Amino acid sequence: MKKTDIIDVIARKLAPFIFLFGFYLVAFGHRTPGGGFQGGVVIASGVILLALGRDPQTALSAFPASRLSFAEIVSYALLLALGILGMAMGGRFLENVLPVAADGAVPQVSFIFALNIVIGVKVGAGVSLICLNLFERESR
Amino acid sequence: MGDAKRTPSSNIKRVYRALVDVIALLVVVALFVFVLTPGETGGAGSASGAVGTEPDAAPDEAAPEEAAPSAGEGDGKADGDAGIAPGRIREHILEHGTAETGAFNLVTAIYLGYRAFDTLGETIVLLLAVSGVAYFVGAKR
């Protein structure tokens, strides 16, 4: 596929805004529509835009596959640790044991906020890892 | 990989690996059963076991407003109810969802507050998909 300068510039300028929108979806998932899964997919779509608009090697140099795998594994372990925290503090698995208030501020919904952050990192790393592997296979 | 010439030591290694796989599978299944077992607060009737579902056993539909505020979180006074009607869960989430989970977004309140286990399963599916893609088409490094 022939790459033009227009595609290159648009991909480079648009990707940070897509990242920002993904972080917004993850961080405000308890107030507005969105959440960890959706925000993570939006972040991964920024990585995919970089890989398609430029080339997969550029995206892989910005987001190396080893670091993406590390982020995936660490966030999955954190998710399990959050679940075991509920069991350790006398509840069930993944039960919310932190204090809850209904005013929507972050210290009061910290459990759901933490779950959103962890799931967002995990889904973003996972989906972008799948797509970067496939693109790299295609370009070889 | 389909070559028939295989030394006995590699056969032993394969058997050993299969044994390790089976043991790991058994450990995972045991952990799953342990996690899914209802806690000591749940009685014999509350096998649904979800956090914050309404264990009130009053079956009359005439006064749901009186039944809903008396629902504590997981008190085991459920004697012999087989299940909870879906309409009652909807009313409970509409009334108490934000207060119990702290999330204004009721969709988030359900899938991370009441049903976080479902999200854990989704992330396990994604993890398996990533490892499969990385194993089959990933670059050799």
Shape of chain A: elongated
Q: Which structural class fits the helix and strand makeup of chain B?
A: mainly alpha
Based on secondary structure, the structural category of chain A is: mainly alpha
Major β-sheet of chain A, in short?
Answer: none
Strand content of chain A: under 5%
> Which runs of chain B of at least 5 residues are low in confidence (pLDDT < 50)?
41-80
Task: Give the oligomeric state of the chains in this entry, treating copies of one chain as homo and distinct chains as hetero.
Answer: heterodimer
Can you give a write-up of this model?
The complex is a heterodimer of chains A (140) and B (141). With 140 residues, chain A is an all-alpha fold. Helices cover 73% and strands 0% of the residues of chain A. In chain A, helix 2 (36-53) crosses helix 3 and helix 3 (56-62) runs antiparallel to helix 5 (110-139). The radius of gyration of chain A is 18 Å and the shape is elongated. Chain B is mostly helical. Helix content of chain B is 56%, strand content 0%. Chain B is built from five helices and no strands. Chain B has helices spanning 8-36, 64-67, 86-101, 106-114, 116-136. Chain B is elongated. Residues 41-80 of chain B have low confidence and may be disordered. The A-B interface holds A 29-37, 65, 69, 72, 76, 79-80, 83, 91-96, 100-102, 104, 108-109, 111-112, 115-116, 119, 122-123, 126-127, 129-130, 133-134, 136-137 and B 35, 38-39, 49, 51, 98-105, 107-109, 111-113, 116-117, 119-120, 122-123, 126-127, 129-130, 133-134, 137-139.
